[in-house]
């Protein structure tokens, strides 16, 4: 098998199974582990995969700004949001951070819905302006323009005095073994504090984010209470279920 053909096969396996192990690929493709490691290093350099210890993960979606993400996979995000509504009850204190899927969820809340919403996302706060029975607490900080969320030490300090029934976490990348991650340290620190002050955590994840990793780990996936996703591989689903996460797909 030629190198180009072998590397395409690796990418195909990775797309189907979400994660590859070098020793396993060595047996499946009948080449040495050293050859597989060189392939993985080359594919990582080319930006096709993310190398991790013993193997590789899918690259996942690129980092793009909020307005661009609002035009991507809207139907899928809407479906995830509708499923999430089943876990949101009247009178809850909801902590909702940034993300286009989270915005879809807020837009689907009935105008008569009664709750308290804590958010560091100006788009989320603005989307609730006509919900007369929802009290909105807007957390300040420095506006991170790419994601349209407030971040920084002021944001973290404000969260220390709060408590939420349910944290609806915007998820950038997630892997059942490596955890939930984002590219920015500042965003990771805020999300970590949000997770700490919440009784339960719900994440809505499109399939392109599954089994992907970024630079800053927020928390282990076992911190999630609910994971709402689509087209999840059964083996991956079992890994989440073993961590006590209620997976809805």
Describe this structure in words.
Keywords: DNA-binding, Repressor, Transcription, Transcription regulation. This is Lactose phosphotransferase system repressor. It comes from Peribacillus muralis. GO terms for molecular function: DNA binding; DNA-binding transcription factor activity. Repressor of the lactose catabolism operon. Galactose-6-phosphate is the inducer. With 249 residues, the protein is of the alpha/beta class. The chain is 38% helix and 25% strand. It is elongated and about 65 Å long. Helix 5 crosses helix 6 (100-108). The protein folds into two domains: 3-58, Orthogonal Bundle (Arc Repressor Mutant, subunit A); 66-248, 3-Layer(aba) Sandwich (Rossmann fold), CATH 3.40.50.1360.
Write the layout of secondary structure elements.
Layout: H1 3-17, E1 19-21, H2 22-29, H3 33-45, E2 49-52, E3 55-58, H4 66-69, H5 74-84, E4 93-96, H6 100-108, E5 115-119, H7 122-127, E6 134-138, E7 142-144, E8 149-151, H8 153-159, E9 164-170, E10 173-175, E11 179-182, H9 185-196, E12 198-204, E13 216-219, E14 226-228, H10 234-242, E15 246-248
Parallel strand pairs: 4-5, 4-9, 5-6, 9-12, 12-14, 14-15
Antiparallel strand pairs: 1-3, 2-3, 7-8, 10-11, 11-13
Helix pairs in contact: 2-3, 5-6, 8-9
SSE order: HEHHEEHHEHEHEEEHEEEHEEEHE
Name of the CATH class of the largest domain:
Alpha Beta
Percentage beta strand: 15-25%
3D shape: elongated
pLDDT averaged over residues = 90
The fold-level CATH name of the largest domain is Rossmann fold
Please indicate the count of domains: 2
Q: Tell me which CATH architecture of the largest domain applies here.
A: 3-Layer(aba) Sandwich
Which range best describes the helical content: under 10%, 10-25%, 25-40%, 40-55%, 55-70% or over 70%? 25-40%
Q: State the separation between the terminal residues, measured CA to CA.
A: 37 Å
